[in-house]
Amino acid sequence: MPHQKTTLRLAAPVAVLAFALSACGGGDDNSDDKKPAEPAETSQAQTASGGEMKAGESATGKVAEEAGSVTYEITAKSVDIGTEAEAAKLVQDKADSKGMVPAVAHVTYTHKSGPDLTSDSDAGDSTTIWADGQRGTLLIGASNDAAGCEDPYDIESWTTGESHTLCETYLIPASAKSVEVHWSEEGGEPYIWHFPNS
Fold it and tell me: Which of 7, 30, 47, 107 is most open to solvent, judged by the fewest CB atoms within 10 Å of its CB?
């Protein structure tokens, strides 16, 4: 299962990028015979996810888990910014960490409804960290032992009402002025929490 999870974590950003690029269009189809299938209000109501959030503010989203669809309350609590020396310890090639620092996002997920889980959750798989409008570089497994973070593979069950704090670590430029935590439902727009980098 850990290999599958790692593969999913690596594949997800590629899929998101491919989706984003395909959503940008590229065709100049100005055909007048196209008619919308539904009124604009209906399609907006169906995709009403995502938006700007304040640190500590909660959002609600669904995740397709192995046991079925689970609704979570998601709260980006904080982002811990490390030092360049700490970044150098987290990568194999020290040149990859030059001018970079680790950023650890602490995100709490509360199981609101859906089936109880008896295996690891995919709730944190779409969490990313951005700095000054650019996505950081994911460091897989780097935050599993960070203070205040739970190792997702140690969560053996997850029932309605239960909360867990899962963390993601990314490398971001040391000079970044703003840091954002993004989380989205599959195919939805991201919720974006803003944190200063002081």
Answer: 30
Distances (CA, A) of 119 to 8, 65, 90, 173, 198: 16, 9, 28, 35, 38
Residue 113 phi, psi (nearest 5):
-160, 160
Phi-psi region of 13 (alpha: psi -120 to 50; beta: other; left: phi over 0): alpha
pLDDT (tens digit per residue) in 72-114: 999 999 999 999 999 999 998 888 889 999 999 999 999 999 9
H helix or E strand, kind and range, residue 42: helix 40-46
Q: What is the CA radius of gyration of the chain?
A: 18
80 to each of 9, 12, 13, 170, 193, how far by Cα in Å?
21, 24, 22, 11, 14
CA distances from 64 to 59, 117, 190 (A): 17, 11, 16
Distance CA 184, CA 174 (A): 26
Sequence-distant (6+) residues with CB within 8 A of 11 are none
